[in-house]
Amino acid sequence: MAHTRVMASAVPGPEEASLMTRRVVGFVWPWAALWLLNQNVPVGDVAGKKTKAEWKAQLSPESFDVLVGRGTERAGSSPLDKQYPKTGTYNCAACDTPLMPAASKFDSGTGWPSFSDTIPGKVDKTIQPLYLLGDFGCRECRCHNCGGHIGHVFTDGPKTGPYPTGMRYCLNGVSLKYKPAA
To answer: For position 39, what pLDDT does the model report?
Structure first.
């Protein structure tokens, strides 16, 4: 019995090429969609806008990563998480703009400082599409004055108490500083 040797062609046939294309597209499209969904809305014209170099010179590395780089601090790492004053405000760590009334702070159990309301006109909310997969009401929160990223707002906040908004502003402690009432 004679053996015949089958040699592979260097150029795939149309059926093989179609199969390879489907496999590549099937692997790449979810990653491309995830990348697109995680894009941030750029900071527009704000009163306190600075260059990255100016922010880097002013802020600690952790604050820079969150406020400018849109990062997130590790849960439970902020001393502000377990602080519950009844008066005063929580201000932006970058520009000192008052953002949250201290009385709206509550223990959400998440490990991040959480608030149920903002000082009107001081916090801007933008859509970050990736978060829409879990909570259609979720938005990225930014300081209205400087555009710094402070955290996110979710729709699972308290519906009773002094600020019954139903919203949970889950903020990074390094993006805030507490200012006692004068």
So the answer is: 61
Query: Which residues does the chain have with pLDDT short of 70?
Result: 1-12, 31, 33-44, 128-137
Q: Which two tokens stand for residue 173?
A: 């402690």
* Buried-exposed string 45-79: b where 16+ CB fall within 10 A, e elsewhere: ebeeebeeeebeeebeebbbbbbbeeebbeeeebe
CA 44 to chain centre: 17
Q: Is 170 a catalytic residue?
A: yes
Query: Which H or E run contains 149?
Result: strand 149-154
End-to-end alpha carbon distance in the chain: 100
Question: What CA–CA distance (Å, rounded) separates 103 from 110?
Answer: 18
Tens digits of residue pLDDT in 67-106: 999 899 999 999 999 999 999 999 999 999 999 999 999 9
Q: If we measure between CA atoms, which residue out of 35, 44, 36 comes closest to residue 126?
A: 44
Spatial separation of the C-alpha atoms in residues 153 and 171, rounded to whole Å: 8
Annotated catalytic residue, options 92, 143, 146, 170: 170
